[in-house]
Design brief:
Elements (H helix, E strand, L loop, with lengths): L9 H12 L8 H7 L4 H13 L11 H6 L5 H12 L1 H6 L8 H12 L6 H14 L12 H8 L6 E3 L23 H14 L1 E3 L1
Antiparallel strand pairs: 1-2
């Protein structure tokens, strides 16, 4: 999988800002980019395949849920973070926190993944394009629920939880519970999950 980039990385910023402002079209075409978003010439034409590569536009040219949700200020930055991790998965396979690397570290990673020389124009374009995307993303929202919040919800120190009924048999067993929390901002969902855990699985030592 090649790393997405455009020959004019600055156009990515312009395009994304205008996508947030414009109405969602039935199809994202060159005419839409050049006329509605007012990004002319070859620069505008190159943005259609780029938007497809980052998952904003389907192969048929229709706006995807990424495209639509990105326009929502409350979730737009998280959506862009997800789009970056999906479309730049080759970087994530080497370092899952590639988006947090310093500029020099990120360039080195791009060189490693692409196999290109440091001076190659592709490296510079991938780097600049990705940095423009990162400016629209918030990866901190990947942290679903912090440990202190879980402790407060469960009402005790997780290090001292056991599963099931405790019997005095002189045997202590330790279990690790891995939770795949849903992608939602609805606190009531998390409250219900933790309440169920506390009542059905977890008992305080």
């Amino acid at each position: 999988m090649s790393l997405p980039y455009v020959a004019s990385p600055g156009s990515v910023k312009t395009c994304l800002e205008k996508i947030q402002q414009a109405s969602v079209p039935p199809r994202v075409t060159v005419d839409f980019i050049q006329t509605v978003l007012n990004i002319k010439g070859g620069t505008g034409s190159a943005l259609v395949p780029f938007l497809k590569k980052i998952g904003f536009v389907s192969s048929e040219g229709t706006p995807t849920e990424f495209y639509k949700s990105f326009r929502n200020p409350s979730v737009g930055k998280k959506v862009m973070a997800d789009a970056i991790k999906t479309s730049y998965v080759d970087l994530g396979n080497v370092n899952e926190y590639f988006y947090s690397l310093s500029d020099e570290e990120l360039k080195a990673l791009i060189i490693q993944v692409t196999g290109q020389k440091k001076e190659d124009s592709t490296v510079k374009l991938v780097f600049s394009t990705l940095k423009n995307l990162i400016n629209f993303a918030d990866f901190s929202q990947d942290e679903t629920t912090e440990l202190p919040a879980i402790q407060k919800e469960l009402g005790a120190d997780p290090e001292h939880f056991s599963i099931g009924h405790k019997e005095s048999v002189g045997l202590n067993l330790s279990y690790t519970i891995n939770l795949n929390l849903p992608a939602t901002n609805d606190q009531s969902v998390f409250n219900a999950i933790f309440k169920s855990l506390k009542e059905n699985l977890l008992k305080n030592d």
